[in-house]
Amino acid sequence: MDLHLETDAGTGRRSGLERALRDAIRSGRLAPHARLPSTRALATDLGLSRGTVSAAFDQLVAEGFLTVRRGSGTTVSELPPRPSPGDQERQAAAERAPRHDLRPGRPDVSQFPVAAWLRATRRALGDARSEAFGYGDPRGRVELRTALAEYLGRARGVLAAPDQIVITSGYVQALALLARVLGAAGTTAIAMEDPGLAFHREIVRRAGLSVLPLPVDEHGARTETLTGIPGLRAGAVVVTPAHLYPTGGTLHPARRHALAEWARAAEGLVIEDDYDGEFRYDRQPVGALQGMAPGRVAYVGTASKTLGPALRLGWMVLPDHLVGPVAEEKRHLDNLTEVPGQLSLAEFITSHAYDRHVRSCRLRYRRRRDLLIARLAPGRSLPGLRIGGVAAGLQALLSLPAEGPGEQELLAGAAQHGLALDGLAGHWHDPGDHPQGIVVGFGTPSQRAYPVALEALARVLHTAIGRGAATRG
Predict the structure, then answer these.
(1) CA torsion, points 343, 346, 352, 356, in degrees to nearest 10?
(2) 90: which residues sit within 8 A by CB, 6+ positions away?
(3) CA atoms of 196 and 159, how far apart (whole Å)
(4) Which of 87, 165, 216, 423 could join 145 in a cystine, given CB atoms 3.0 to 4.6 angstroms apart?
(5) Within 13 A of 466's CA, how many CA atoms are on the CB side?
(6) Please, are residues 278 and 155 in contact by the beta-carbon 8 Å criterion?
(7) At a CB cut-off of 8 Å and minimum separation 6, what does 231 contact?
């Protein structure tokens, strides 16, 4: 075996070797039960006499760092574990982890289709040519781009050819790439829904562009304000038309048309974030906006909500004039997204395992939302509480009664009971006198943990609303 040791030239040869071996064992570079080279081989490698190495080994055996067994050579002893900074951080994170997690934006990853994914991976990698594991097209593997073009066309109404698709490492990278390309072409600002996800606004800002608020009401983004937003001009707009985040509505058909017309007239770009478009529970999912104006809409989707965010697989369907610049930006950012996952997802889609999984998830999340609606109905001692949005997605907005409790008060009470929620306040572009609410993610807990988390939420809300009523009385 190769063994890297740095001996201290300022000490004796034997003591320097002893110290180097002790440090390697204590730091974990030499793991318990690891077999060391023979004294003859190590002496040759280090340029020491065999007697010096044997004496160092004997000393470390006496101290308990090494073990000698006949026929097995010299191995590293099993030392009592010492807590490392990483262990302490993990322990602290475990202590901070909530008992009930109803934060939005996450699917139930316990339902990841491990067996089906393994089958797809075996087939995909078994059939892959050797060139697939080298450097390739920054747009991504043609197998996945072809599979996505077919799937997105029939399931989401997207007009796409494989050459228009760029594979990314999730939505965050897709948005960052688009912001950089637009900035290089002269765009100075991007309008984003208000309220919306603050993290996404920060991605745009870090790309050097300004973020302008696009007001949202019960019918979605107020497209009539686009022409009046100072500094937007021929910029871009980020929207979530199929299921607005976090308010939960759907962009009204008239506003979909108005948005497409604005993009054509202003020579702007609409960035369509279709983050959970497959999950509609009361009707067929609303088709993608991209189908109305494919030359002016950059469609972005991912596998994060359907399969799991750890896959880091996303995709963009781009107007022709953006494909080249985005691919070039991708090349200089990370060259390409990892290939084995792309091949596996392509096989998962073409075998229709993806469709089966989405249908299963849709049924499961629909039941969870129905349970949420039934448990938090105003008739169950929760007066003034309103659950907004359409029957879709993985989260729901609970609008709080004007007379209280306050959003921060409720979040603090939830935290005391080990319940993690997300407030609406952090989603507004600017602080101020905004409607208050709680964003509840019903996709996060496992199947078994969800009913318990829902009961904890109901107790927290009942206590807070009841306390507010008593105070007013």
Answers:
(1) 80
(2) none
(3) 27
(4) 165
(5) 9
(6) yes
(7) 188, 189, 210, 212
Topology (CATH) of 13-76: Arc Repressor Mutant, subunit A (1.10.10)
pLDDT for 79 equals: 79
How far is the C-alpha of 191 from the C-alpha of 269, rounded, in Å?
10
Which ranges of 249-313 does DSSP label H, i.e. alpha helix?
253-266
Ordered DSSP codes for 186-240: T--EEEEEES--HHHHHHHHHTT-EEEEEEEETTEE-GGGGGGSTT-TT-EEEE-
Q: Which amino acid is at 139?
A: R
Instruction: List, for the chain, all residue ranges whose pLDDT scores fall below the cut of 50.
Output: 470, 473
Residues 221, 231: Cα–Cα separation, whole Å? 18
Phi, psi of 422 (to 5 degrees): -125, 135
CATH fold group of domain 112-355: Aspartate Aminotransferase; domain 2 (3.40.640)
Going from N- to C-terminal start, the domains of the chain cover 13-76, 100-107+359-472, 112-355
SS3 386: strand
Single-letter residue type at 424: L
pLDDT at 337: 96
Enter the tokens of residue 311.
Answer: 């896959």
Instruction: Please tell me the distance from the alpha carbon of residue 178 to that of residue 161, in angstroms, as a whole number.
Output: 19
Token pair, residue 185, equals 């072409």
pLDDT of 183 reads 95
Give the residues across from 73 on adjacent strands.
Answer: 69
Instruction: Please state, in angstroms and rounded to a whole number, the distance separating the CA atoms of residues 385 and 383.
Output: 6
- 405: CB partners within 8 A, 6+ apart: 413, 464, 465, 467, 468
The whole-angstrom separation of Cα 169 and Cα 306 is 15
User: Three-class SS of residue 105?
Assistant: coil
pTM of the full predicted structure? 0.84
Place of tokens 């962009």: 251
d(CA 58, CA 352): 63
pLDDT tens track for 107-155: 999 999 999 999 999 999 999 999 999 999 999 999 999 999 999 999 9
Backbone phi and psi for residue 70, each to the nearest 5 degrees, phi listed first: -60, 130
How is domain 100-107+359-472 classified at the architecture level of CATH? Alpha-Beta Complex (3.90)
- Kindly compute the dihedral angle of the four CA atoms of residues 450, 456, 459, 462, in this order, to the nearest 10 degrees: -60
pLDDT digits (tens, 9 = 90+) for 36-58: 988 899 888 888 899 999 999 99
Residues 112, 307: contact at Cβ < 8 Å? yes
Q: Output the six-digit token pair for 312.
A: 């880091």
Residue 12 makes CB contacts below 8 A (sequence gap 6+) with none
Q: How far is Cα 372 from Cα 374, in angstroms, rounded to an integer?
A: 6
